[in-house]
Write a structure and sequence with these properties.
The chain is α/β, with parallel strands linked by helices. The protein is built from 10 helices and 11 strands. Bound molecules: guanine. Guanine binds next to strand 4 and helix 6.
C-alpha cells in the first residue's frame, strides 16, 4: 500500500515562504501584482481563475482580473496585453487557456513580455528551459518536480516516463526531469505498447486528461505516480490514473483533486513573487549606475 502525496499540504507549506517573500518586497515598496485574463465562459477556466485569485489574496499578492466575453477580438486582447506589458506595477501576466477558437494562443502568448510571462509559455522561456538558461518555468511541471522531490527518493539515474506531450505539461516536465538526471521517455496518443513502457517507470507522470487511462497493471511496484490529469465526469474530478488499485502498487501517488492542482497555483504565486524580486533588483541596479 502506497502513501498519498498531499499536494494541498505541500502547497500550503510553500505558500508560507512565498508570503514572507511577498511581505519583504512590500516592505521595500514593491507590491507583487499578477494580471489574469479570462476570455469566455468556460466553467473549468472560471474555477481555476477564481482559485488563483483566492490564493493570491491569501498571500497578499495583488491579482487584477480582466474578464471578457468570447466575442473579444484578437486585436483587443493583444492591445490589453501590450498595455499590461508597459505597466511597471504589473509583474505577472497570465492568459487562461484554452482560448475561444478564433483567438490564436501562439500569437497571444508571444505578445506577453517574457519577463512577465509567469506561466513560462513564451517561446523565450520555453527555449530557456530547453537550453538550461534562467527564465520562468511553467507552473504545473514545477509543482510536479516539487512533489517528486518531497518523497525524498532519488531522481538521478531513475527511469521517468511522461505520458502526454503538451507544451504546458508533458514537454516541460520531461525537460525538468532530464535536468535532474532521470532517464526520460515521453509517451503520447500514438505510442505503441504504452503499458510495457509505463511498467518500467520508477517515476510515472500522467498528463493526458483521459480518466482512468493508467490502470494498476501499467504501474511498476514501488513507483512514484504523479497524476496531472483532471477531468470532470458527472460532477466529480477524475485523474488519468485509476487511483484505488494504483495506490496498492505505487510507493507514492497524488490524488485528484488535492495533488498537482494546488501545487500549480502555489508555483504561479512563486513565479509572480520571483518576477517582482527581479524587477526590484533591476531597479536598484539602474539606481546605482
Ligand atoms: N489552462 C490549464 N492550465 C493552465 C495553466 O497552467 N496556465 C494557463 N494560463 N492556462 C491553463
Amino acid at each position: 500500500m502506497g502513501q498519498i502525496l498531499d499536494g494541498k499540504a505541500l502547497a500550503q507549506t510553500l505558500c508560507e515562504d512565498i508570503k514572507k517573500r511577498a511581505d519583504a518586497l512590500k516592505a521595500q515598496g514593491v507590491a507583487p501584482k499578477l494580471a489574469v485574463i479570462l476570455v469566455g465562459e468556460d466553467p473549468a477556466s472560471q474555477l481555476y481563475v477564481r482559485s488563483k485569485g483566492k490564493r493570491a489574496a491569501e498571500l497578499g499578492i495583488l491579482a487584477e482580473q480582466y474578464t471578457y466575453t468570447a466575442t473579444l477580438s484578437e486585436a483587443e486582447l493583444l492591445d490589453r496585453i501590450r498595455q499590461l506589458n508597459r505597466d511597471d506595477t504589473v509583474h505577472g501576466i497570465l492568459v487562461q487557456l484554452p482560448l475561444p477558437g478564433h483567438l490564436d494562443p501562439d500569437q497571444v502568448i508571444a505578445c506577453i513580455d517574457p519577463h512577465k510571462d509567469v506561466d513560462g509559455f513564451h517561446p523565450q522561456n520555453a527555449g530557456a528551459l530547453l537550453s538550461g538558461q534562467p527564465g520562468f518555468v511553467p507552473c504545473t511541471p514545477k509543482g510536479v518536480l516539487a512533489l517528486v522531490k518531497s518523497t525524498g527518493l532519488p531522481i538521478a539515474g531513475k527511469r521517468c516516463v511522461v505520458v502526454g506531450r503538451s507544451n504546458i505539461v508533458g514537454k516541460p516536465v520531461a525537460l525538468l526531469m532530464l535536468k535532474e538526471d532521470a532517464t526520460v521517455t515521453i509517451c503520447h496518443s500514438r505510442t505503441e505498447g504504452l503499458g510495457a513502457i509505463t511498467r518500467e517507470a520508477d517515476i510515472l507522470i500522467a498528463a493526458v486528461g483521459k480518466a482512468g487511462l493508467i490502470t494498476a497493471d501499467m504501474i511498476k511496484e514501488g513507483a512514484i505516480v504523479i497524476d496531472v490529469g483532471q477531468v470532470r465526469i458527472q460532477g466529480k474530478w477524475q485523474g488519468d490514473v485509476d487511483f484505488g488499485p494504483a495506490l496498492e502498487k505505487a510507493a507514492y501517488i497524488t490524488p485528484v483533486p488535492g495533488g498537482v492542482g494546488p501545487m500549480t497555483i502555489a508555483m504561479l504565486m512563486d513565479n509572480t513573487v520571483e518576477s517582482a524580486q527581479r524587477a526590484l533588483q533591476a531597479r536598484s541596479q539602474h539606481g546605482s549606475n
